[in-house]
Design goal:
This is AIM24 family protein. The protein has 210 residues and is mainly beta. It is 7% helix and 56% strand.
Length: 210
Amino acid sequence: MFRLQGSKVLAVDMTGDAVKAKNGSMVAYDGQMTFKKLSGGGEGLRGMVTRRLTGEQMTVMEVKGQGTCWFADRASEINLVGLRGDTLYVEAGNLLATDAGLRTGTTFTGLRGAAQGNGLFTTTVEGHGQAAITSDGPAVVLRVSPQYPLIVDPGAYVAHQGNVRQSFQSGVTFRTLLGEGGGEAFQIRFEGDGLVYVQPSERNTIAGDL
């Protein structure tokens, strides 16, 4: 159902089914479609309250019908992720669209766990289906294995999936080496067996510099 047209436009072919997408991300459609704005990015009251507490602004719309919809977000690169009953953890601002059958929610990631504007929570996507995530530049998918933990700058982190444990450790970031950082820098450490999606540019983060 999900396919890319180029690297920056997502096409979703629908035959009466639905897709959830970031509000304002649809750029075109054909056929017969209905649109509904959903409150909050998570399921139920808990998701709405969590996002309000953390200041997350993630307005989601549901598109349903027959035809094709095209989605894009500020010319960001789009990456397709297939889920087979597992969970994808993704920064809220990087989640573009999901199959309507996938469940979305939030999970607490720690005291230094997210980029500026995303509070202390990461968005979760679980179930069977497809999700589309965005990145600033083409995302790189890195493998985490029990023998080789992965250390990621929080400004470059986009998402992860698999049996992966996430923790935070003090460290030196590239910005600190350049003299642009102030305070204590730290990094995200991933251990276990799974995949981590990183982007080839760094957003400004609360997480990277405290």
